[in-house]
Structure formats: C-alpha cells, structure tokens
Amino acid sequence: MEVRAELLKSIWYAFTSLDTEDSGKVSKSQLKVLSHNLYSVLRIPHNQAALEQHFSDDDDGPVSSQGYMPYLNKFILDKVVEGTFEKEEVDALCWTLCSKKNYHPNTNGTAVLSNKDAEFLWCLFNFLTEDKYPLVLVPEEVEYLLKKICAVLNVELNSVDLEEFWTQECVREGMSVWSFLELVNSGVLGRGLDRERLSSAIEDVYREIVGNVLKEGYLWKKGHLRRNWTERWFCLKPSALCYYTSEDRKECKGSIELDNNCCVEVLPEREGKRCMFCVKTLNKTYEMSAPDSKQRQEWTAAIQQAIRLRSEGKSSLHKELKARRQEVREERERRRAMREQETQRLQDLQGEKEQKQAELEHLKEAQKQAQASLLQEEERRRKQHEELQRALEEQLREAEEARASMREEMALKELEAEHQRKRIRELEELQQRLEEALHQEIKARQDEENYRYTQARLLAEEEEKTKALLSLQEEQEELLEQMQKEKRELRRDMEEKANALEEAHKQLENIRASRHRVDQDIAAAQRKQRQASTSVKHWNVQMTRLMHPISPGGLLLTLLPLVFGRLSADTQRCEKVFAPFLVSYSFACLSHLNVSDHQTSKHKMQFINEGLYYSTEEKRKPSLQGPVWKRDFNS
C-alpha cells in the first residue's frame, strides 16, 4: 500500500506534465505512451489489447485524471510486485516528463542545483508530502529538509531569507516542489557553496531518507576464512547491513541479514585493533572495527535501531519520523483550532458584553432624559403653583375686605344669633334626647331579633334532639325487647343446664358408688384368687408327694419347710441363702424321675418353677403370715 501511494505521487507529476494547456485533461495518445513506459519500468507484461480496448472509443478528445485512474489502478498498479522493479527508474521517468514543463533553472549560471540534484530534491519532496493532491509540502517539512541538508554541509541555515519567504501569501498553506527548487536555487542554504559539496550532501540526504540508509561509511571487517582484517564500505538499512569494496557500491562483498535474533556488542581491544564491536546472528558473528570510539557508538546505535525497526515490522525510519511529525502537526492544528474556538468564544462574550454595555448606556441615556423631563414637569408645576398662590392671595385680600364689611353686619346680627343659639341649644337637647330614645329602641329591636333568632335556633336544635331521642328510645326499646328475649332464652338454657348438671351429679355419684362396689368386688376376687392359687399350689405339692416315692433329695424337700418354718425370725435371709440349693436339689431330684413319664416331669418342673416364683414374689411382697413353705408345712 505504501509503494502504491509513492508510485501515484510520481505518476501524478507525469500526468500533469502532459497537460500542456492546464485544463486537467491529457490526450489519449500521450496516455498510451505514458502507460507503455510505465509497463517497462515497473517490469509488468505489456497488455496491448487492454490498452487499445480502454482507449478504443470514437471520442478522440483528452482524458481527465478521473478517466485515467481506473485503467491505471486495474492494469498497472494492481499488477505491481514490490521488489521486481527499481523505484529510482520510475522516479527518473516521471522527473524527465515533469521537469521539461515545470523546472526552469536560471540559464545565466546562478543556479546552484544540477539536474540530478533537482531530481533528488524532487524525490525527497515527494517522500515528505502527504497523500493529498495537489501535492504540497507544509513549511515545517520544508524547514526540516533544509536543516537536514545543512547539517550534512555543516552550515547554518539562512533564517532571514527563509522568514521572508514564509511571509509570502502563496506559501503559507503549503509549497509546491517547483517553488521549493526555486527557493534552493536562490541560495537559502548559503551562498558561495561548492556545487560538488552541495550535490554530495543532497545525495547523502536522498540516500538516507528515500534510499532508507541509516548509516554508511568505512569499517574494518575480520574475515571468516583467512581471519584477516579488510577495510570495507558498509551500508546499513533496516533489513540488512551490506558491505562493498569501495564507496561507489559497485561490488557487493556480502550482506548481514538483521532480524529479532541479531544483537550488537562492544568488544575489547585485541589483535592491534581498537574500537571493536561485533554483530551476532544465529549462524555467525561478524567482528568489525571503527576508526574511533564516536564512530563505534554511532554504528552500534544505528544497528540497534535497525534491529528495533525490523522487530516492530517497520520498513523505514523516516516514514516513522514523518508520521510522528504529522501527528505533532495535527495535534498543533487541533490545539490551534481549539484556541481559535476559545478566541471566538471570548470574542462572542466580548461582543455580548459590549452589547450589554451599549444597552446599559442606552438605559442611562433614557434615565437622563426621564430625569430632564421630570425636572421640566416639576418646573411647570412650580410655576402653576406660584400662579395659583398669587390668585389665592388676591382672593384672600378680597375675602379680607368682604370680612371687614361683614363684621359690621355680624355685630348687628349677633344679637339675633344669640337668640337663635338659645333656640338651637334647646333643639339640640331635644334632638339628643330623641336620638337616645331612638338608639334605645333600635337596640331593643336588635336584642329582640337576636332573642328570636336564638329561640328559633334552640327550637330547631330541640326538635332535632327530640327526633334523635325518639329514635334512640325506639332503638332502646328494640334492644330491651331483644335483651329480654335473650335473657329468657339464657334463663331457659341455664335451667336446662342446671337440670343436666344435677342429673350428671347423680350419675357421677351412682358411678362412684358402683366403682367402689366394683373395687371391693375386685379386692375380694383378688383375695379369693390368691387363696385359690395358694390352695392349688398346696394341693399340687401334696399330690406330687403322694404320687411318687420319696427320693434321696426328696427328704430335703420335705424337711425344708420345717426348717424354714423354724427360722421365721429371718425369712428373707433364708430365702436368699437356700434358693440356689433348692434349685440344685430340684434338678437332682428330676434326674431320678422317669423320663418317659412326660406328664409327671412336666408337673415336677412346674412345681419347681412355681415354688421359686412364689418364693421370689413373697420376697418382693412380704406377708405377715410368713413364707409359703411355712404355711405349707403347718397345713
């Protein structure tokens, strides 16, 4: 994409140079020749059919850049392969076409640039311009390029001439390449410079910026086979470090490919060589020696910079620097626009302030006019007042004269007035008494009206309360009737419940009596049951004794009750002591029984078990009658 943009810049100059009438259009025959030459320098196979087909219409008129761009993009630029052509040849072709029309150096020998130098500056100008047509270079980039050339020449840039040139209106927004060449030919880089020195400086800057050469110069290199030291001309680019036999770069002796795996190191002095350093790759280590330590530091820094550019995927250092400068300019433009907006806003605020000030002045003027009108009105009123006062004074004099004449008449009428005053006082007293009587009557009527109103209100309230009392009385009567009904029902229920409770008490007494009788019956039955059980056991023992002869153990069984009967003082102790012996002898007695007599054996075992059980029961429930054996023996 970058190669396409750079090619378009050069081709744009070639296209505009063919427009001899500056109409923006070029004849088809000239475009055919230009396309044919572009095919040749870009190493693209010629497509004569496509060329003839694109320009085969009947219209023989010229073609604009918009008409030529589709063909240029489709059949030329889309087929360009980077690395298959030399960009210098394309630039030389386009420079040859555009310089004939636009570049006219002074023919009197005052021009400081040769045609080759002008071509290099034209290429540098195209490299530094932005992709905006027509191509112009902003003043910052022009100054950067001139300072770059002056740094190589070791001269100071003529800032005075440059400032005068920047003041021109036509170069404030940007400078064309022809104006730039004219500026350089005018001696802005310094007058009296050697042309060869200037050409060498321009070529060095061209190779550094356009040729993408980071650094070049002589270094001593150690061989890999002979291991001897040879002086070579080294040329460093972001992709490789090439070395030649001489600085004309005609015979390349080798190249060191730079990538992420490469590094540069400083070496100590050895083999009589000073300022040594090496470049290490995956396969080899290249040892070199610089003329001095400063050159060694510059070379190591440049090689590290090339490795960094290669690792970051950037192909040119100056393209990166150009992008940074462009970002700085855009940021500056953005800040300038913001300052202009702020200035405009301040101007608007100032305008509003001035407008408000004018309105305030207008209001003050209006206030002054109003005050003047008020003063005039006050003066007019004062004059009217004075005239009125004079008229009143005149009337007062006339009144004094009339009063003097009337005093005489008043003296005459004073007597009549005295009589009249007496009559008037009598009438006033009568009137006062009448007024008092009238006030009393009015007050009495008002009190009567108030009493009537209060009486009507009280009657209305009494009527409302009477109605409310009647309604409450009716509700009370209804409630009383309802309460009486409920009271009768409750009385009936209470009587029923009292009867039921009395019957329940009677039934409970009957049940308690029945229970007592049943308990007595149960106690009697239990006594009878115990007695019957005792008798059954006794007779079982007797029957067993009578049905079989006495065995050797039988005598002990016969004597045991006698012994137990005699030891009645310590019955429980005897049972505890002899119970195990009784069981042992009982089993011994059973061993002498007839085994075939199953029924007799069963009775024998039942006897032993029952005897033991009741002896244990007697131990748990001591009786006043003594142990069972004692009772059996006594019986």
Question: What attributes characterize this protein structure?
Answer:
PH_SWAP70; about 625 residues; 7-stranded antiparallel sheet; PH domain-containing protein; two-stranded antiparallel sheet; about 70% helix; single chain; disordered C terminus; PH_domain; flat; 16 helices; EF-hand_SWAP70_N
Structure, explained:
The protein is of the alpha+beta class and 635 residues long. Helix content is 70%, strand content 7%. The chain has 16 helices and nine strands. The chain has helices spanning 2-18, 28-41, 48-54, 65-75, 87-102, 115-128, 139-153, 159-166, 177-185, 195-209, 293-311, 317-547, 552-566, 571-591, 598-620, 628-634; strands at 25-26, 63-64, 215-222, 229-236, 240-244, 252-257, 263-267, 276-280, 285-289. The strands form two sheets. Strands 6-5-4-3-9-8-7 form a seven-stranded antiparallel β-sheet, with helices on one face. Strands 1-2 form a two-stranded antiparallel ribbon. Strand 8 (276-280) and strand 9 (285-289) form a beta hairpin. The two termini are 141 Å apart. The model is unreliable at 552-579, 581-601 and 607-635 (pLDDT under 50).
- Give a count of the beta strands, DSSP E runs of length 2 or more: 9
Structural class: alpha+beta
Our estimate of the beta-strand percent is 5-15%
Specify the helix fraction band.
Answer: 55-70%
The main sheet comes to: 7 strands, antiparallel
- Count of helical stretches: 16
Note the quaternary state here: single chain
Distance between the termini: 141 Å
Q: Taking strands numbered 1, 2, ... along the chain, how are they ordered across the largest sheet?
A: 6-5-4-3-9-8-7
Give start-end ranges of low-pLDDT stretches: 552-579, 581-601, 607-635
Q: Please state the average pLDDT score.
A: 79
Rg from alpha-carbon coordinates: 74 Å
Helix and strand element order: HEHHEHHHHHHHEEEEEEEHHHHHH
Query: What overall geometry do the principal axes of the alpha carbons give?
Result: flat
